[in-house]
Amino acid sequence: MIRQQFYTYGVGNTRLVEHKGIYFKCEFENPTGSVKDRGISVQISKLLEMGVRSAVISSSGNAAISAAKYCREANIKLTVFISPKLKASKKSVLEKLDCTLIVSPKPISSAFRCAQKTGAYNLRQSKDENAVAGYEALGLELIRQNQEIDAVFIPASSCTTFVGVYRGFQKGKKKPAFHAVQTEAIHPVASQFDKSFTSRKESIADAIVARITSRADEAVKIIKQSGGYGWVVSDKEISGAWEELAKFKLTCSYEGAMSLSAYQKAIKNGYRYKTPVCILTGKYYE
Is residue 75 part of a domain? Predict the structure, then answer.
């Protein structure tokens, strides 16, 4: 318990900021600048309890940066597999941390093979309930900050954060509508609801990468049971939301801005909420 408290120290307790009737959860205020710290810090704490000394992760950037920080502090050897398309600014951060960095055209399968071959623990969050537990804390924290939340908009890649936050609200006995947000490039969950978009090969929100996730069915079930929806947002909608957030000093990642663009799309489609929350998942990288 002492170790877990240490490695989750400083994570969370991010601001909930209100602007024009919308609440924004500032997850870019976490130690490495993203919501990923919530799940990764719990995962690393559990590895210490288990006596694990090596780990591997595939990541679009934020999870790897978080894992590198906490593995370094825990003296756990980390191997990171990244796509050649990873932003140079994120790669630069990783290069300064104590991890083995490997560029692969198929980072997920490469990490899987590495874990099988070496016995390293695979930190893939979509397969790890410890990660979900970290995101549950975000749901419970939101309830403490505002008891009246009636809708939550969350950018979703593997849907691990989405599922965890929902479970936190369940534990807190609150039932807001849950809205999953994805891009025109990656939309395995949201496209089961939203049909008003044009598929693209790429998106400016390049941290949304999971074309397949084991948590998709659970996410769809959550959306339906909570009365929420899945939203596919365009680059134009994302950039417009990002610029609006920047005007009132909430500069975040494009992925984070997706939550506001989805809320705006929901309003256009007749949804109305008294206390909606948009999760701003990470900081902005050039």
Answer: yes
